[in-house]
Structure formats: C-alpha cells, structure tokens
Amino acid sequence: MKKHSDPRSFFFALLCSLSMVAVLTIASPVANAQDDDPTPASESPAEPAEQPEPKPAAQPVLVAPRYSVRVLETPEPTWAMLGDIDDDSVTTALEFSHLGAGIESLQLPNDYVDTDKNEHITLQRRLSVNGVGAVPFNAMGIRINGEFVGLQGQDVWHQLSPGVFEAFIDDVDDHAVVRIERRFTLSVLNIYGFELTQTIENLGDAGLTASLISTGAVDMPKSKTTYAGDRRRIRYGYLLSPDMQKGDLTVVVDSDLKNRSSILGKKIVNNWGNKVYASSAPVWPTEKTAENGRRLSWIALSDRYFVVLVHPVFDPLQVTTPEEKLMGGVRSIDRLVLNPGASAQDAAFVLRLNGQVVTVEPGKSYSHTLGVYAGPRTKPVFNEDPMLVSLSVPSMVVYNLGGFCAPCTFQWLTGILISVLRLFHSISGDWAISIIMLVLLVRTCLHPITRWSQIRMQRFGVQMQSMAPKQKALREKYKDDPKRQQAEMSKLWREEGLSPTGMLGCLPMFLQSPVFIALYATLFFAVELRHQPAFYGIFQSISGGSWHFLYDLSMPDNAIPLPASMRFSFPLWGTVSSINILPLLLGVVFFAHQKYLTPPTQATITPEQASQQKMMKIMMVVLFPLMMYTAPSGLALYFITNSAVAIFENKWIRAHMNKHGMLDIDNIRASKKDKGPGFMQRMGEAAEAQKQLKEQGPRPPNPNSRNNRPR
C-alpha cells in the first residue's frame, strides 16, 4: 500500500478532523476502511419521503489537522530479518515490510511445500489482489485525541535493530508528540511464531488519548488441491460471561468448526447491481457473542495442517484470574475483503485489530503485547508451550470433516486412534505400516460384531430363499385378497420360525460406521503423515529418488507423473498431475469383495430391487474409486487394507459357518425350534391371541410356544 500523493489527501484529512471519521490517506480500499463503526455495504438509504424543500446547508468550516506522521528524510534500505530461512533448526523466519512495519512474509525454515524441499511453507505474506494490498500485522494508523493519523507510508518507520521499529507523530509546530514502537521477538523456547509489543509514548506536555489500529493475520493460502473441499476455518477461544465464568481459569474452545465462509458472510447487491461481499464486517464481538456475554481470549485462522493464532501473553504459572487470559489491548476485530466480487474460494481478507482507547500522561508510555503462533496444527507441538496449554489451544485440534458426518465423528475416538497410530509408528518407524497395523487392530476389535452380523444376515438370507416358493404360492392364491394374503404371510413366517428382526443383522455394520469415519478423518488431518514416504521410502531408494510413487502419504500416490501440457483440473479432484495406481487397485479390491462375498440374491426380490442392487455394486466398484482418485495416498492405503482384510475375514466367517452347518436350512429350523419363538414372534403371538380372544374367543395353544414346551 503506497502513500497517497494526490492533493485530495489534505482535503480528506481536514474533513476527517471535522467529522471525527478515520479515513486513511492511501489508495488501498483495505486501508480506507478505518471507521470505528463501518456501515455494511448492504445498508442502502431508504427511499426518502416527500418533504418540504430543505434550506441550504451551511458550509462546514475546515480545520487543519493537529497531528501528522513524521516522514524520513532518506528512505531506509531493506530491513534485516528475524530468524534464518536457511537454518532448519529454527522454527520461524520473519521478513519485514516498510508498509506499517508489518510482515512481508512469515516462513517456516523446517517445513516445505513438498518433499523436494525447494520452497518453504509461507503462512503469512503480503497480499496483493487487483492492485489492492494488505500487509499482515502492520500498523495501519493511530487515533490521537480522536484524530486519525495513517502509519502505512513507505518512509515512516525507522528500524532500530532487527525486528524493532519506531515512528513519530508531530503537531502543527513540528514538535514530536507521540513515539510509537513496534518490537517483534522470536520465542526463546523456539516455539513457532513470535511476540509483538507495541508501545505508545507521550512526548508532549499534555495528556492524550490514543488507540492503535493494526492488521492481524491475512487469509490462509488456498490449498493446491480441492479434495474434500476447502478446509480453511476460523476458530476462537473465549471466556464465558463473568457471572458464568466466575473464578474458573478454563478457556472454552468453540466447537462450531466454522469455515472461512462464515467470515465472508453472504454476498449483497451493491449500487451497480453486482453481488459482492461487504467490504468490512465485524468478526468479534458479533451480535451472537455479545448476547451470550462471551469474551475473546484468542482467534485463529487454520487450514488442514497449519494455523495462525493470535493470543494474549502472560506467565501461566502466575495467572490467578481468568481475565488475565483475555486478549487485552484489542477492542474489536473486523475483517476487510480485498476483492469483494470474487468467489468464496478466491476472496481474500485481512483481520483488522482495533485497539482499546487508552490515556497516556506526559512522559509516560503504554505498551501491549500479543503473541502469534504460526505453525503446525498438532497437539504435540502445542503441548510444548505452557502458555498455549493454559489457553486450551490443544483442544482446537479436531479430526473432523464437518458437514453431515460431524455428529458421528467422536473426538474421543479420533484421539484414541491418533495416539495408537503414533504408538505403532514408534514401533515400526514407518507411517504406511502404522496405518496397516491400525486397520488390523480396529478390525480385530470389531470382529465379534462383524461375525455376529454376518451370521445373522447369511442365515436370514438362507431362510428367505427356502421360504420363497411358499410365499409365491400364497401371493398367487390370495392375489385378490391383500388382507388375507398379509395374514397368511405372517402365519408362514411364524411357522418357519422367521422373524423380521433377522433383517437387523446389518445394523451392527452401521454401528461400526463412526469408527471408520473417525479413522478416515484422523488420517486426513494427521500432520504426521505430511511429507512422509511409504514403506521406508523403498520406491525412492530403488529409483535413486527419481520416482515419487508414494513419496508423500498426504498426497496422491503420483505413480506416473503427467507432463505439464497434459495436466488438467476437475471440480471433484482439483488439479490432476499424475496417473495414480492406488485408486485403481481400490476398485479391483471392491470388485473382488462384491463378486465373492456378496450374499446370495434372494429369489423373492423384484426386478427393480435387483436393478438397485446392481447399481449399488457399480457405485462401490467404480464411483468410489473415482472419488478417491486424488485423495491422499494414506487414505487410499487405509481403504485398500480395510477391504482386503474384510475379504479374508468374511471368507473365514463363511468357512466357519459351512463347517458347522450353520447355513443348512434344517439346522437353522431345528435351532429355531429348540430356542423357541423369539421376542418379536412372542409379541406377535400375544397380539394375535388378544385379537382372537376379542373376536372369536380363545384359540388352541401353540405347541411350539415356550410356555407349552416340556420341562
């Protein structure tokens, strides 16, 4: 954002002094949105009612601004960095911008975009969209005694030392009134991120009120793959209202899992008839948070693997009241959209931190420090910082895809699964083998349920097949009397000892679904799988590193890379840059599962039902592998292993049933007769007896009833 050199800037400054409205004198729309209470773009004036002709308005008296930022005589060269981008023993490297003494880029020296390690991960960077720019964590301006002064000029800030900058505000007599210092420091514990201390020093001879307005985090970079959708989210940590919080030091972490679209809001129609996002909108507090009395502790922007989190700074061992964990020094937070007309995926925004209004006496100063964590979104790293632990930040790590699967993705279950996965990795030393071991463990634990379910479904299918001719005869005999047909069918089911509850044999399979959904979500969000090769990197070893097959379990298997000219994009897949083998192998495994392990088709199903079953098989064998084509190879490996194990498990169950004659219809009937009627049959008998007693009187007892068996 460049300083505005147009003469109109002076007129704007005069108008601001008169109306007490903060308008930055720079060209960027982001910087121009500086009002304390911005009016949403959706609010248009109502149609005026018919009124008498107004009197001419008095011309306002323009008042010269009382304060101005001091401009450096000689622009400073490139500033020194904090941290060394070439030293992978450190966690954070900061490059600074002359615009507002903000961050030009925040990179992670020990994290890379891909396994080639040619490009470092950049979590924060200067944004520029269609000529509109935003610098993260820069000083946008300061309001002194109600008058706004911009601080984003190229020649405003002077570097005192690496990461330490100062700027001066002068009065109309060119006397220094305020000195502002911004001090960036890296953690002595080598934790990801930094601390930012901003100081307002009163150099004048009278007290003044001041508040700093700065940017916070800019939007997280868009993922290069669209598999499973956009996983960028906004998360909060907050305290309850004072009446509810009382002396409890616990910070509550939001559980809404809101996507970044919740910040953007809904598009509105502007004055030109175009649908756009509001240029500015409140993020905290909102009507909902204010109504509930929630108080902000920290705010974070996250994606699938990383997070940028702004939080208060304190000594965790010295905290005695929950208020010490509030984000002090910040009155409110807004979001400013750089390109309001863009799509939800491409719209970029920056958070604006509106500072509290403070009174600074002559010769005194006011300082406030914010901490910024910028690194992997994983509990082991969070737990290394006692301050983050005190703020309940580890609780923000959830393995949940959201949407309709969110309620059945139990976090306690995903916590167990990721812990077991880490345990297996400590034993095997390879994440692919750990995934296979985890699948084997899960299927072993669920085997009793699977076995019970398979036996009930298989036996029910055999019973239905044996009863099919009798059912067909009854349909023919009573085709003109549906009521009698239904009664005879019920009687036949009772005589055969068959209960509708046999169809519930598939219910335990559905009850297992949360386990597999949780396992899916765990593997999708596990930072540990990122940039990890499968099977000890054997494919890279035998090819001298030239073959990238299964070189990254968080990416597609990349078996046969495609030339740049042959790469293409597909909405469901994103950019396809290789031919992937694992999804094809998954289709083969599903086909084997369908061909050899599907229970025999019941003779009583209709052609429509048979067509539906065929369609379901096609969906499993073709559509699901297609959906998984650009999925992370770790997920594909999980599905292949799970399906392969299911084949052998189901074969063993069927062999066990055949060995013991459990699918022989005579044995099934004898077993049913020995056990007597089930619960549903007894309920049916009781209902039928009551009906007969009411209509025809008592009927002869059923010799197969449990009450009439010899004892």
Outline:
33% of the residues lie in helices and 22% in strands.
Question: Explain this structure to me?
Answer:
Helices cover 33% and strands 22% of the residues. It is built from 18 helices and 28 strands. The termini are far apart.
The best one-word shape is elongated
Amount of helix: 25-40%
Largest beta-sheet characterization = 10 strands, antiparallel
**How much strand?**
15-25%
Low-confidence stretches: 1-52
Number of strands: 28
Q: End-to-end span in angstroms?
A: 94 Å
Number of helices: 18
Radius of gyration: 34 Å
Class by SSE composition: alpha+beta
Q: What would the average pLDDT be, to the nearest integer?
A: 82
Chart the SSEs and their pairings.
Layout (H helix, E strand, L loop, with lengths): L7 H12 L9 H4 L34 E3 L23 E4 L6 E10 L7 E6 L1 E3 L2 E3 L4 E6 L2 E4 L7 E4 L2 E8 L4 E11 L7 E9 L5 E11 L14 E7 L2 H4 L6 E2 L7 H4 L3 E2 L5 E2 L3 E5 L2 H6 L2 E8 L3 E7 L17 E8 L11 E7 L2 E3 L4 E12 L2 H4 L3 H5 L20 H18 L2 H47 L4 H14 L11 H5 L1 H13 L12 H5 L17 E2 L6 E3 L3 E3 L1 E2 L2 H16 L9 H21 L5 H27 L5 H11 L3 H17 L16
Helix pairs in contact: 8-9, 8-12, 9-10, 9-16, 14-15, 14-16
